[in-house]
Design a protein that fits this description.
The chain has 214 residues and is mainly α. The chain contains 10 helices and no strands. Helix 1 runs parallel beside helix 8, helix 2 packs antiparallel against helix 10 and helix 9 packs antiparallel against helix 10. The radius of gyration is 18 Å and the shape is globular. It starts with a helix and ends with a helix.
Length: 214
Amino acid sequence: MAGHALTFALVGLVVMVWPWSVVPAFLLAATDNGPRKLVAYVLGYVLALAVVMVLAATLLPPGPRAKSTSHALAWFELAVGLVLALSVLVLWIRGRRTAGQTPKWLRGLDRLSVIAAFVLGLWVPNYMLVTVAVAELSLWELHGAEAVAAAVVWVVVATLGVVTPLVVLARSGRNSAAVQQSWREWLVKHSSAIVCLVLGLVSVVLILKGGASV
């Protein structure tokens, strides 16, 4: 049970700092009509995670699975762990080559409408990691309100990264533009290092858990 809880928490932390979700939030905040776009983006992001996790908490039966299902889950966790480990290597290599540069596809965020920002929020969550979180939640042997509470807490933690720009804008007042620009530059520069650290830790946990159960 402790192992499932640890993996569940670590996956939430990775989703929280996942750059392909967090970087667009900071960049949207610095675009024309940025606050409205950012609110729409955050709403879409939170809605996507909340629907998946709450449905999982209420519909999936808790407790251990049949041997064949547990074996399949172990292989899935091992595969995801290996994919994440490879992703860390790729991100590290790309981070060294493109340090401080904003990816070209992110520059198009300035032309997004509010509705498109909402759709982007629905699309960007790392659903592979969310699937791992769903599996771990179902194996955590929680029931009813406890499972829903765990799912809600996970969603709150996982969305802290995309909500941060809203907090910055709200607290900065007239200096919000300058503050947001400095956050944007820092995040673009360091996001790869942050996610590599957390992602590497999760990949090790998944590989060890999956490998031990295969």
